[in-house]
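Minutes, methods subgroup
Present: GH (chair), OT, SY

1. OT presented the first of two proteins processed in the latest run. Sequence and structure tokens recorded below as shown on screen.
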Amino acid sequence: MTTKTPSPRKGGANRGGASDTSDAIPLRYGDDPYVWACWLYYEDGMTQGEIADAMGVSRATVNSYLADAREKGIVHISLEPARLASLTIAQELKRHFGLMDCLVVPSDDNARPLIDRLGVAAAQALPKLLKSGDTLAVAWGRTVLSVGEHADIAALQDMTVVQATGGTTATFAYTPELCAAAIAQSVSARCVNITAPAIVKSPAMRTMLLDEPLLQEQFQTLGRANRMLFGISSLRPNSTIHTSGFFESVSLQHYLAAGAVGVVAGRFIDERGRPVAGPLDDRTVGISLDMLRKIDTRILVAGGFDKVPALLAALRGGYANVLITDAATGHGILRADGVTSLDARLSQKPKVAQAPSSYRTHVKKFLNNPNQVVEEMLDGVVRAHTDYLQQINGSNRALVARNGPRSGKVGLVIGGGTGHEPCFLGYVGKGLADAVAVGNIFSSPPPDPIVQCAAAASGGEGVLFVYGNYAGDVMNFEMAAEIAEEKGIKVRTVLTTDDIASSPVEDREGRRGVAGNFFIFKIAGAACDRGLTLEACEAVTRKANLRTYTVGVALEPCAMPQTRRHNFEIGPDDMEIGMGIHGEPGVTRERIKSADEITDSIMDNIFKEMKAAPGDRVAVLVNSFGGTPMMELYILFRRVAQRLEAKNIRIEANWIGHYCTSLDMVGASISILHLDQELTELLRHPCETAFLRIN
């Protein structure tokens, strides 16, 4: 059968299991569960979860059937020849010219005009190239207008589309104004026009116009563009530039004599992509070639064999880093630039994909006795951080800050299970938590060490308990609070509920406490250290909790030390949205997306609740679940910063790294603390712990 190509698989799957489904297999599949599973996946397009439900087996078994079917030769992966050729050409264009990306439309029977096919292709590509908060500069032309006519992207927010050149009074449908308006409408963006002619009578007129405050403001917007969409015109007699009337006030012969082969946004270039000087240079109102090169994503959409010289010039000049064209044009560009090996590659038969021959069932870890992992870890913690922590009554399960508790100060006690390091024990020290109670992996500490922590942290003004909203923690901390009250220690409690994915906003009190604990602990510790009353410490901690918003995403599950197996499965092309910190599955499962798309989804959900206004301030935490490297966390933070900047929200402080983990889970969470003046001052308050120092 001819099939789509599934993505490479990760992780393991249980093998076999055919006999479990033999009685339920529909007649048309015979008695072969492999054929059944493959048909549902490749022909009916069902997900592995849907197939598992239909077959009455686990997702792991379905995964195994699909892998085994490829190994046994039941399924062969192949691609339509025309599409394979397009992919090969796109890959070579990307490599040869160092492009960020390239999309090549397959050749067809000319049933549809090339401009329409390019417009459809670019419209489908735009959601991957545009992000909320972008400023998109738009040039003019028939292909650009076709993109606007076919695109419809409703999910973007805070978008701005700005005209890349001045306007024209021409009657054709693809003027700069109409192109910008069409693109703006298709992406639900604010449209900023350049309210001046594209070509004026004299350099003096251009200078005078650019001195106008309105034009200066419009050009400032153009200068902020981080994306640009443009076409290109050749200088052949049948090209758009000759028929549009756009340059009717000047002869093009000067530019042709000087070697010009194309026009980009009203600017002429030669075969090497160099600007061609001429009489229009000082009379053109619009983006310059230097400005264009500085834009991050430069999307060139054009096709037709007559445009090969112009497209090659634009690529040589570095004016585009994303190219959308057709197969014939792409092949022509490569041939024109001396790429001669492509024909042989295009004639090769597609390779049959091979599945891995073996599957790993256990995760490698640095362990001695898995049953002693918590005690050995805590022994290492106490040895490593003697300047900050010490045992209470000789127990590693109750630790107190060496420079935290003092007379006349409210004590702060935090706690929870292990597996989240550096949370919770990493935030014990001067100016932050006074003591921490430690449980087993993903398990609440029992009441006794919590009571010991309360006694050690008490300075006569009461103790504040702050911990995550989990049933075991609530039960044990409440029992400990009752015992502490009997001992004469006044206790107040704040549950952290920052995980907005775990419950709807109307059930805010039922949400889990996750990585936002970091901010809430910090505010509570500062309030206690400043000498506020127990009631005041409780109030400001509750405010911090209500203004903290977190969403987590996991790509791979974690593995418990005792089993060294993943505690649930995530498909090779899936991700879990709304992860907690105890290794449990997320709230929903979706197909994996790019880093920016994931971040946008998180930020969109946070913005729905945060209700921040322009000029507001926030603190940001991009937290690894344990298996995600700093490189990827910085990519996520970059997008968070862009989204906040688009709303004119200032980042007062940020932290990126491992702050509240879930063993070795691959994933990350984003937490936003919506600041006011009081919270800002407490966030800045000095603290010194093993993992957090603010001076």
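2. SY then presented the second protein from the same run.
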Amino acid sequence: MNDSSDLQITSAERRLTLAALAVVVLLSALDQTIVATAMPRIIEELQGLSMYAWVTTAYMLTSTVSVPLYGKLSDQYGRKPLLVIGVLLFLAGSALCGLSGEFGRLPVLGDGMMQLVVFRALQGLGAGALMTVSFAVMADLYPPRERGRLFGVFGSVFGLATVVGPFIGGFFTDHASVTVAGYEIAGWRWVFYVNLPLGALALFMIVYRMPVLRKGGGGEIDYLGAVLVVLTAATALLALTLGGTHYAWNSPHILGLFGVSAVSLAVFLWVESRAREPILPLHLFSIPTFRIATLGSFVMSMAFLGVVMFMPLYMQVVQGVSATQSGVSLLPLMLALIFSSILSGRIVTRTGKYKLLMVAGGVMLLIGVMSLTGITADTTQRDLAWRLVLTGLGLGPAQTLFSLVIQNAAPANQVGVATSMSQFSRQMGSTVGVAIFGTFLTHALTAELPKHVPQLPGAAVAQLDLAHAQSQAMNVEQIRERVQTALDERYRVIERAYGEDPKAVEEVLGDSRLPEALKAPLRDGGIRARTNDELAKRTDALVAELKDGEDGRDRLLEDPNLSTAMKQQLANIPLRAWNEPQLIAGVAKLFRDSLLATEDAVVAKRAQLALQAVKAGMTAYANQLVENIHRGMRVAFAGAIAHMLERALWIVGLALLVVLFIPELPLRSKAHADSAQAAAGPAD
């Protein structure tokens, strides 16, 4: 590392450089949280719930594995060019993320959701340079004592991004949709486009105002190690994401991915043990405290981002709040996290003890996540808030103390390398956590949706895919439209059935989801058979009355069911004719034929009346079905997220178990730590 005193840098250049770095760090920190509240709307439009976790996983994977590379490259080729490259990659990725799906399905890149995942990976590749090189530049510009104060300031930038990120993401999603030259730009796209003006400003200040800092000592770059890290992590994450959903866990695809990951990990460990400057210095893991704390940081980070990423999905899908409101609803979690993080840091500074706080944080996190497993479709925002506060209080100490323990455990001349390892393990934990939580959620939804969501008449279970389910759960009108379309199709079949189409009759009678009251008129020969029987009985009764002479005639004239025309014909028969049996028999035959000839008209009229009743009944049924489906969707999503958190309890429990084994070592004095950090160089 170059001593800042050797650099001919003015105070104005320092201030402008710091301002540019602040914007750069803000961009990187925001993009880890700003997307969370926009994701439910994004996957609704791009139809990609099954790839929910990969939008974050792709970003974090590329940003994580590039951290050590950017640190060494900036030592060899200088901070400024690497920072410029990083900003350019980040801005290119941001612009392309905003354009995802705008041009439909693309060759190689696939549909809109796959495009977003690929472009988020590109964005993450640039983000890896933003954090690493920015802190290295600060290390070049300021001596260790002044650097500690600046790290505190930049730490507040992280806190600001953590608090306002979800709110900004929700606000843009809800209110930033605009129409330009007749073309509508969805609000969620501005979550990515907002990076462009801020990034352009930072880039201008870096290019034209940032001084050219001299190169460090450099060294070899472990490119093979970096490739193996990517291969190991990517194949494992793919297996976790696709297993049990796209492919069975014991399928050749999933077993092959896990096999490649295991072999790649073994080769990686072999390569790192022999590399002159490994991307992950394995010798540090021979230190018990370092080894246990790094593992604890990894596991705790799995739990942290899993909760933060999937809570907006619960709020927007189940509670029905807007993206902006879901950002506000996350504030209890974020504020509690920041509060407990700052408080635990101050307590450790005062007492020099950290283990009790870490254990207390782990216990509080376990209680918080356990309370979150109790959320249902009827949980209110206030009821959710206290659960998030408990979770945030538990997560806070992990944000401060794991890095402290890892730095303190490392040799004094390797604090910088240890810090890089701490950041790497934390980001890898978050990356794996998002993938695992996403897999848990997908599996739970696959089981919960069929149990709680009624199927439409004529619809197959396979038609209820996860993307449609999430979209419909957020939009009751979409459910209503789908229900109406399905019932209209059913009505056309019912209409043909009542029109005596044999195939339609068979289909209606075989549909278990249709009510019996609708099917009853079609059974046993349908309306025609019953009408024919009724007409036959009526004609037999009429003939019998006619044979009874004048008394029978009088009763028929008073019969309200006999048509006016027939009564007129009866009245016109002379009285003497009633004493002539042959004549009355002829009249009876005419009446019988006349009544039986009305069969088609009676059948048509009864079918029409029956269809009117069916239509009215189906309207009421549609309203009830819409309500049941919407409620079922919300119950299914709430149950799936609760089941996901129940499984996450094992992760939190594992993190707490690891913390219990962290030794309580004396903390180094401030002067010793500073000298060690100065010797080690910036924490790339």
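Chair's summary of item 2: The beta strands are 178-180, 183-185.
Next meeting: continue with the remaining queue.
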